[in-house]
Amino acid sequence: MPPTPDAPRAAPNDAFTLFDVRVEVIATDRPMVCNHQPGDWFALVGENLHFPPGQSFPLYPLAALLPLLPAKQRPTHPHDWMTTDAVIACPDPHCGGQFRITRTGTTTFRHADVTRVPLAAADLRDSACA
Ligand SMILES: [Zn+2]
To answer: Is the distance from CB of 103 to CB of 43 less than 8 angstroms?
Structure first.
């Protein structure tokens, strides 16, 4: 039944939750080549990367990590390797650095705060593609 013109409309529930992710450099028995040290870290909350004050992070390992992070932010099937595997090797084959990706918590966002595409339009587009 449609709402009457004077009835208050409930705000649409457009909330969704993502995992907060932390990436930390871990040592191996091989020396580091890149400018990352054991214990260096950064965090990802929503679309924002956070680095500790004064700490840098090399570009090439960051570029290798970036494609994995959105998947780690989202729920994955328990049998999916994305769920079980958390240690990623540095892309420099001579570097002993590795990176542990940890889900540290969750943050809830609203669809309307992160995109200008209305939910109804997205729903219609997705059903048309199915
Ligand atoms: Zn490295």
So the answer is: no
